C-alpha cells in the first residue's frame, strides 16, 4: 500500500484487530423493560436481572442492550434482534429511539419531531399507530446506536 508505506498484511491486521474490540453491556428482554427497577430517571440501567452481552465497542459507559420480543417492530427489528441503546448519545430528528413514558410504557419508535410542546414518534411497524406526547409525558428518550440485524 504505497500511500501509507505499509504492507497489505499490516492493513489486514489493523482491520481484524479493530473488529475484535468488544464491550460488555447489560442485556434485558424488551418485554421486561417496562417493569420497574431496571432504569433510573435518566434512562440508565440499574438494578438486578440484567445479563451481559459482548458487542462492538460503544462510546457510552451507560450503554445497554435490549432483546426484541415479538413482531410489533417489524420490519425494522425482528423477534430476537438485539439493539444497543446509548442514553449518553445526543438524540436527533430521524433517530430510532427507546422512549419511556411517565406512565411506565417503554417503546421503540423513530423521533419524528421534538419541540417544547410536543414529542412526535413514528412507529417502525406501519400497522402500529404513531404517537404524539407532551414533553411532560416523557420520562426519558435514548438513542439506538446499533442493532444485531
| Largest β sheet strand count, sense and barrel closure | 9 strands, mixed
Bulk shape: globular
What's the CATH first level? Mainly Beta
Task: Give the oligomeric state.
Answer: single chain
* N-to-C order of helices and strands: HEHEEEEEEEE
Radius of gyration from CA coordinates:
18 Å
Structural class: mainly beta
Instruction: Write the CATH fold name.
Output: Umud Fragment, subunit A
Taken together, the total number of domains comes to 1
Q: Give the tally of β-strands.
A: 9
Amino- and carboxy-terminal Cα gap: 33 Å
Number of helices: 2
Unreliable segments of 5+ consecutive residues = 1-6, 14-20
What CATH architecture would you give? Ribbon
Q: Which band does the percent of strand residues land in?
A: 35-45%
Give the full name of the CATH homologous superfamily. Answer: Umud Fragment, subunit A
**Biggest sheet, strands in spatial order?**
2-1-3-4-9-5-6-7-8
Amino acid at each position: 500500500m504505497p500511500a501509507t508505506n505499509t504492507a497489505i498484511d499490516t492493513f489486514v491486521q489493523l482491520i481484524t484487530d479493530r473488529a475484535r474490540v468488544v464491550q460488555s453491556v447489560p442485556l434485558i428482554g424488551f418485554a421486561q423493560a417496562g417493569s420497574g427497577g431496571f432504569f433510573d430517571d435518566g434512562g440508565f440501567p440499574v438494578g438486578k436481572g440484567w445479563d451481559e452481552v459482548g458487542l462492538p465497542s460503544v462510546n457510552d459507559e451507560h450503554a445497554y442492550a435490549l432483546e426484541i420480543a415479538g413482531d410489533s417492530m417489524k420490519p425494522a427489528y425482528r423477534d430476537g434482534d438485539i439493539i444497543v441503546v446509548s442514553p449518553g448519545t445526543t438524540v436527533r430528528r430521524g433517530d430510532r429511539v427507546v422512549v419511556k413514558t411517565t406512565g411506565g410504557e417503554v417503546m421503540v419508535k423513530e423521533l419524528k419531531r421534538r419541540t417544547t410542546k410536543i414529542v412526535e414518534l413514528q412507529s417502525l411497524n406501519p400497522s402500529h399507530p404513531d404517537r404524539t406526547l407532551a414533553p411532560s409525558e416523557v420520562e426519558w428518550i435514548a438513542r439506538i446506536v446499533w442493532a444485531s440485524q
